[in-house]
Amino acid sequence: MERLAIDGGTPVRTRPFPGVLEPGGRTFGEQEREAVLAVLDSAVLNATCGGPWLDDLESAMAQLHGVPHAVACSSGTAALHLAVAAVDPEPGDEIITTPLTDFGTVIAILAQNAVPVFADVDPATGNLTVESVRACLSPRTRAIVVVHLFGAAAPVRELRALADERGIVLIEDCAQAYLARPPGGDRPVGGYGHAGCFSLQQYKHVTSGDGGLVITSDAGLAERMRLFADKAWPREDGRTHLFLAMNYRMTNLTAAVAGVQLRRLPGVVRQRRQLAARLCDAVAGLEGVRMPANPHDHAWWVVPLILPGGGNQRWAQALTAEGVTAHAGWLKMPVYRYPALAQRRTYGRSGFPLTSPPARQEWHYPPGLCPEAERLIEHTLVMLPWNENYTTSDVDDIAAAVRKVHAAMPSVR
Questions:
Q1: What is the 3 state secondary structure string of the chain?
Q2: Which residue range forms the structural domain that includes residue 38?
Q3: pLDDT 10s per residue in the chain (413 long)?
Q4: How many domains does the chain have?
Q5: Residue 243 located in a structural domain
Q6: Does residue 47 lie within any of the structural domains?
Q7: Distance between CA atoms of 286 and 94, rounded to whole angstroms?
Q8: What's 38's domain CATH number?
């Protein structure tokens, strides 16, 4: 058996892979440069002052997803805040979400004085299950925020049916899942819920550094989100503000870059899928290693490996030593164990809105709250970065490293 690099053997690879913080790992080109210069030459960088770039971006996003409305904003977190604010929860109302997500998902809930309620996840995908969401419903539930983790579509059609049954709103967090499709779905994620939120942050499929987009088929939600992004200022009516809101406006510079990037998106996702299919084929049949199901509908933001037998820390260390950067568990802990929630550090030391009143109970988030999510983090999930600019040789090196580590670790199978 070949000796692992972590134990003194020769690594599979010593060259770095393309990454999203360098030109070789991004899809920027002359069109982005021309778009930025066009904005600078216009002298109008603020989108509320004119220029075609914001409208063009929103129209392209809506058309891509087959919905009538898209609203641009300053970040993916802002996009989620727009969607939650459009629901207009009362203080202490509850919004169900996942413990496996960026904290921006939870920020949007707390910022509107609502209570995040955490449902557990599918151990094979890390996505919310319908059963766990149903178990969290209460008379104060106003919405569900479902995250399509790592590029795999959550059971969003079933969750929409549940939301409609209970008369609540379904919000999709699609930041990692551009153009992913659920099993049997006829369109990409984002259009199944009442609102679908996207991020243009540096690490996403397409980027303008930061930025966000929300899509919806509901004209009322679209109008409220558009107002919320601009301090609830209906500019056609003069200087007035209709309700408490934020300044989450996107600039013309951001919109111009994002507009070009969005045109590249289908090719980016197609290339990621083709490369991932090669990896799936190369590691198929490895006992105790699970790759995502439905690879041709997956968006492949990253490659999640699931090890049902555990051992993710050792696997991540071994793969990294082989020259394939790997991360055990993605998060260090579920988001409900962050001090902001575990210690209820929200608005000063008040604990608001997790205290009673306005909540129906004193909310605490102890270890063990979502055991499947905690097991993924602590034992079974290994995450590998992915990039549309990988070569087939890069993919073959990754596959070789996975097979080598697998052969040396029978105890976790």
A1: CCCCHHHCCCCCCCCCCCCCCCHHHCCCCHHHHHHHHHHHHHCCCEHHHCCCHHHHHHHHHHHHHCCCEEEEECCHHHHHHHHHHHHCCCCCCEEEECCCCCCHHHHHHHHCCCEEEECCECCCCCCECHHHHHHHCCCCEEEEEEECHHHCCCCHHHHHHHHHHHCCEEEEECCCCCCCCCCCCCCCCCCCCCEEEEECCCCCCCCCCCCEEEEECCHHHHHHHHHHCECCCCHHHCCCCCCCCCECCCEHHHHHHHHHHHHHHHHHHHHHHHHHHHHHHHHCCCCCCECCCCCCCCCCCEEEEECCCCCHHHHHHHHHHCCCCCEECCCCCCHHHCHHHHCCCCCCCCCCCCCCCCCCCCCCCCCCCCHHHHHHHHHHEEEEECCCCCCHHHHHHHHHHHHHHHHHCHHHC
A2: 30-261
A3: 789 999 999 999 999 999 999 999 999 999 999 999 999 999 999 999 999 999 999 999 999 999 999 999 999 999 999 999 999 999 999 999 999 999 999 999 999 999 999 999 999 999 999 999 999 999 999 999 999 999 999 999 999 999 999 999 999 999 999 999 998 899 999 999 999 999 999 999 999 999 999 999 999 999 999 999 999 999 988 899 999 999 999 999 999 999 999 999 999 999 999 999 999 999 999 999 999 988 999 999 999 999 999 999 999 999 999 999 999 999 999 999 999 999 999 999 999 999 999 999 999 999 999 999 999 999 999 999 999 999 999 999 999 999 999 999 865 54
A4: 1
A5: yes
A6: yes
A7: 42
A8: 3.40.640.10
Do the domain assignments include residue 106? yes
Name the token pair of 9. 């053997």
**333: number of Cβ within 10 Å:** 15
Tell whether 412 is covered by a domain: no
